[in-house]
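2024-03-11 09:14:02 DEBUG pipeline.ingest accepted 1 chain
2024-03-11 09:14:02 DEBUG pipeline.ingest length=436
2024-03-11 09:14:03 DEBUG pipeline.predict start
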Amino acid sequence: MKITMIGTGYVGLVTGTCFAEFGHHVTCVDKIEDKISQLKAGKIPIYEPGLDLLVGKNVNEGRLQFTTSLDDAIPEAEAIFIAVGTPSSRRGDGYADLTYIYAAAKEIAHYLQGYTVIIDKSTVPVGTARQVARIIREENPTADFSVASNPEFLREGAAITDFMRPDRVVIGVESEKSERVLREVYKPLFLRDTPIVSTTIETAELTKYAANAFLAVKISFINEIASVCEAVGADVSDLAKGIGMDGRIGNKFLHPGPGYGGSCFPKDTLALMRIVQEYGESVRIVEAAVEVNAAQKARMVKKIRDMLGGSESGKTIAVLGLTFKPETDDMREAPATTILPALLEKGARIKAHDPKGMEEAKHYLPEGIEYMENSYEACEGADAVVLMTEWNQYRALDLDRLKVIMKEPVFIDLRNVYDPATMQEIGFRYMGIGRK
């Protein structure tokens, strides 16, 4: 099939490349000329393991191309996916900003030829696809098209695997004809018996928000339980195993930490709250999860301060990991963007390292943070080390070396990577989350 992907951000680039790997002919469109030039030159603007190789392979085999021209991409397309950004509104009210979605629909309309299915791949509020259809009809009354919703469920750092071997594919359609097109798009997955959930457009639009909200609730739940564990002298790691083995609960997203972040959970939980408010309803559990997440980040600042004797002023803090999770360079809503400014403001010196996120971090963190070449350089002369993100290379640090080069042997483990007893035996003052 001939597929056009509008937008070459994280979702658009990964999705377009994987569709090409399926055997489809994919054209990815973006207005940013520099981005398209880089992609044509084989430079990938985001870090996602394996994506550079997959892009190069499909470009070389003629199934994937990049352009800034809709005229080159729209007329022959059988399916057009809109995968542009839907950031939180600049008003700060939590609503998703649909400016780019609607602008894309308006431009697409003028180039449509023959029957085409236009699919929202971006995470959008309920009713967006209907508005896309309205805009296209107003711009081009003779256009022959259907709209559909096909939410993405990609985890940064594991997006290619998630796309190629998904738990399910959700398609929201309004006609049998558009459903046939989408099933053809995903036909390679049928051979792997991947479940295809076909539903109404509105249900598909809401499904992504509900899924992300549920996972956010799960994270906030275990972070609150971690606080209880600290109060009563229990161990949250063992507790998480105890409840996670229950098939009704599952062990995923039961790892305490400094709070959730990234491009999805913070934005989507707020957007869901605004959606339901418009209909006179509420999602009080989600509202509580958002509040707990904000409080968790503030709580981490206090834990670090307490381990430094009550004040961070004049202290050197080594921070290992800046991105919101490993295997990505994404700094959006990362806990570091809340925690580190608070420490800097009170006079701390911060030396930071991250395997992939340091250049991106400079756009999100205030001036004054020192970015180091490796983890040991960051820890040299430090009064404390804070393990913020659990990259693999931080899981087996030379602890004896660390103790020698640090000014004070204080280890603050916000991801519970290390064993408390082992750390104390080596001579560290150790603090995790929800542990004795």
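2024-03-11 09:14:41 DEBUG pipeline.report Residues 297-431 form a domain with the Rossmann fold fold (CATH 3.40.50.720).
2024-03-11 09:14:41 DEBUG pipeline.predict end
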